[in-house]
Amino acid sequence: MAAGGVLSGGQYGRPPASSPEAGRAIIEQPAALRTAAHKDKRRGIGLADPSHMPPGGLRGLPPCPPLYDASSCAPEKWPSPVSDTELKQRLAAILVADVAGYSRLMSLDERATVTALDDARKVFRLHIESRQGRVIDTAGDSVLAAFETAIGAVSAALAVQADLEKLGVDLPEVSRMRFRIGVHLGDVIEKADGTVYGDGVNIAARLESLAEPGGVTVSESIRTAVKGKVSAGFVDQGEQQVKNVADPVRAYAVEAGVGTLLAVTGVDVSQPVAGFGSRPAIAVLPFFNLSGDPEQEYFADGLAEDILTRLAMQRWLPVIARNSSFAYRGRTIDVKAVGRTLGARYVLEGSVRKVGNRVRVTGQLVDATTGHHIWAERYDRVLEDLFAIQDDLTDGIVGALESAVGRVEAERAHRKPPGKLDAWDTFWRGWWHFQRFTREDFAAAMSLFHRSLKLDASRAGPHFGIAMLRLCEAFFLWTEKPRDALAEAVASARAALAADPLESLAYSALGFALAATGRHDEALAMCRKSIELNPSHAFGYQVLCFARICVGEPEAAIKAIETAIRISPNDTVLHVWLSLLSSGHYLARNYEKAAEVASLAVQRGPDYPLGWRSLANALGQLGRSDEALEALEQFLARMPGFTSEEAARSFMTFRDEAMFQHWLQGLRKAGWGG
Question: So what's the pLDDT on residue 168?
């Protein structure tokens, strides 16, 4: 935090720096007194508040009576006190924020830091003012705001942190600006000009100092007021002492999304994963790229994902899916909190440094229940030994877990390695584009997948990538010939299986394409094979859910997608799974639950069209016409090609015609004319 940049200004009981009253107060004080006041500003003490002077006055100054004048100590020279009619005591939710490591960021790049701070202030103001809040001050690197409601304050804090995380996603970790945010509900004194001070502000400032960079910490009063009403969970940080406040304050770290996911879906990530008995889960976090080249980020991701896949193929421990664990990329984390959020007892983290044709990989396994490291190793290899690194890491993890879960003779199924590193390299670049999910990135990904195949035609990955591209183009009607795209997806998935008969992803992709083309029994067989090969494969359960929906088995579909959510509760495609879960409840004629789950889906993925379709469908059946029409309009704005039954049949083939008509019925009640 920069010196002099901590919540300086009018918010701690003094007028804003631009006011005449503030200017007079500052001018009439000698430098020594202003320095003393600055040290006390976090306590809410005004610039000219002599009641907090040390006994005997400041060094070099004579003792002064309670009313101080710079020239003679005569009380008549002191500005007139504020009248009681100008002060108002009220209950408010106070938000305090500042930048973690602001001085370090300024020393790295002053211009970039100032620009980033300006951008961040815009984000704060947007979310604060849209939730019945008011920005009081933005002095230095800080933000102070007051809200009418606790829900507004917490919702704003979470929305701000989510948006700021997106703003810095393309920056190297060392250059990313992250804020700590504290929120408290309590009494404040408010002046007529809007400035506030008092214990409410002091406590919020103390809570802010306890927050992790990029995190939010709140008081007991806030937690009590918002529990069950915001999409968040709360982790107890214990009682905290606050200067000049008699009683300790209990603090809670806020974890976005955990509470609502449990409340709406009933999926409790603290429970064991089905099919593994009571064995604990493991999560593999993205490896830090220490190469100094952001272009090598995909290299670190690919290595970590290969390790994750190998662990999952061992099948004796459930493995948290990649999209949930990789959501922590580039973030400073608390391993215990990660373990709680993902439902994992063990967390693997590491780093990759690539220089020329050599690579150094470090890995460490942490017991998330205690935070203790139970295994660590460093590997220096030439790049041709990349898969030897993977084997070494996996073997090391197995050995480290033996004392915790018993000695297991794991039967390993080795993935067939690529013949050349360039082919592997090219595939991961293509997958990076695929995950950005735009038409332009799809075109780039297709080119890279084909190039990877030219370099090494024996690899399964590029075939799988092409199959997924064609599936998505058909589903979102991004092609004029969706049936042709599905046929190509089937062919590419079969090619992936021919290249590697043990590739679970290929079985899932084939099952997806077969279900979409009406070959339901074959699709179910492919899904079962995929899950048999990799029981921790969340995508396999997603496809199984889709196939069950197509054959008219909504209860089985719900069970399958709930398993996917349990394996990967923080997945980047959680909104897709919630949309499928909503469809399952809809087909089971539980329209209230379908609407509730679909509402969460569109909150998590507002640009995903099928979430809006699920919401419009459910609301249409419930007779909530205005809301249903609004959701339908949102859906059609994102998927304008969905204009007729023919368009719907191009990618959604139900075994039972009556089930298909029921699937469309809610949309028609919402106002769809197809």
Answer: 76
